Amino acid sequence: MQSCTPTQVRATERYWFAGNKIAMDFGVSGTALPTITASPATVSNVQEGSTVVTDANGTLQFWVGEGSVYNRNQVVMANGSGITGNLSAVQVVVAFAAPDVPGKYFVVATSGAAAGIPGTLLYSIVDMTANGGLGAVTSKNITVPGGISSNETLSAVPNSDGTGYWVLTTSYGTRNLVAQLFDSNGPVGAPVVSTLSEDVGNLFGSIYFNKDLTQFAVATSVQGSNSSNIVRTMRFNAQTGQATEIASWHAGTTGSAYAADFSPSGKYLYVSNIYPGQLYRYDVSSGDAATIKASEESVGVTGDIRGGGHVRRGPDGAMWIAHEANNPSLTRIANPDEALVANIGFARGNIALPAGVTSRWGLPQTVAGCPKPLAPDAVPAVSGPAAPFYVGTPQTLAVNLANQGGSGNVADGTLTINLPANVQAGSGLPAACTAVSPQQINCDLAAAGMGPVAPGANLGPLSIPVTVSAPGTYNVDVTVAGVTGETGAALLNNTAQTSITALALAPDAVPAISGPAAPFGVGTPQVLAVQVANNGAAGDVTDGTLTVTLPANVQVTGGASLPAGCTATTPQQIACNLALAGGPVAPGASLGPLNIPVTVSAPGTYSVDAVVTGVTGEVDAALLNNTAQTSITAQGSVPPVNGAAPVPTLGAGALAALSVALGALAIATRRRKAQVADRR
Q: Who contacts 437 (Cβ-Cβ below 8 Å, separation ≥6)?
């Protein structure tokens, strides 16, 4: 199965070969102007379509033009001549790799020709493992089954799961867009036909996808009827091969529609007409045909009555236009996504070609997908603990190395893990790895037990022990260097990074307080039980103050002893020094209970608060749970015993009357005793 990164796709677009000896090198990345030289290829003149195959490393494999396959030395490949197809087709040939067979490529050509001459699709097979990597055509001009009728439109795109490619064309005199699936063995299944809203005509045309392959454009034209130039934007189902029209409109009437390609953003579609040469631009972002047509702008003239040519989105982010009549220049639009056409940078012929090099109608297609290089491609990966951990606790980094190359083992080189300040290598490194400093570990990929790593295989995970000495978030970098055979774009994916987060070794003091569960009588001494737990993962509670605050009518019991380290600063406040009251408190442990004697002087329900402050090391969320509260209830009478009725209480007046009565009773009692004594 094959999937492509933007870096890999960009590398495959590196080389263009077209026209009369045009050779362009865009490099494997960036938007700089390409280097343009005169191709030494034996072919002198590619009138229209060509295809260039460059692997995901940016290494040229071969290219196809004027019926021949040329190797990277610009010489016709073994058995590479005589590729059947219409040499004057806009898109005569496409190429793509067999996903599961390194070095195997399919070259598909159309024999359809302008003026309504229907053609067929034929495919050839290239083996790039032959002839020391210069390749050979091993099978040639095999008719694609299914009776497909093709014309000058031809494109290819990966299928949805990366196991194959769809080849797309249209059929003259019909409304058919045809898709044929290829897997690693060749054509598979029946052609899939999608119906367009209008006839595809009988002249020129192209099929090009936007940069992210979410849409494609189909341009077609009718001989002798410029008003029948039709351009369509479409969506493609890469799983089923079915296509759906988004919008269809009649393009500019100056010249015959020849090719259409998207700007880098996909917002604009550039359409080139020939006979005479004219370039148009459309804003296709709305997806509405009328709105798109209304946005039509003429960019400029690209050729005379026999002039004009292909328009293509280049790997440099520019639009390129070819000019027929052996013109010694190309046109480059540097800013194709500018809102105003006046600002896009169109100037006909603004790129001069080298002496003896001239433009014809055509510009090339590049290989579909991202062929794996016939070379190793070492790609590292690193991961650390997903969750934050505490400073000083040993951790492990998992380091992997994949070989994403098409062939060739990763048999040597160095895998380097670079640690930032405050992150140090621990003991117990893998056998092939050495800590050259506390912040750098080098692993020898040629050492026993490390390699070789075959294409598609993986080394690791290598477990790298580390310790963090200070809290923070840290980036760990991994780099691979010195792998024999790695070149081009394979050198762009040799680094990886992960982030790890260490937390401070912080305590977390959490108080708790409880009192009598049942109501009690006013004036009867009670006890509050106070505790302090350390809920932190690391770090003792070594200091700080536990403060118990009593409300009005609740006081520390007079004459009662407080726990060690606790002092009644007022009748309503007790302060306990945790260092003296039983500390330090280790993580997971608890201090207490500290028994605080209290007395309530009036009936009611009262809230008692406990707060911990000043604990060294407590930060952030640990400061949010430093309070606790309990409620106690005092009644104005002694609670009933064994279900008996409570003893009623007396008010002040009743108590005074009772006192008088008791005094009178005492006087009467003494008189009676005196009378008894007199009688004796």
A: none
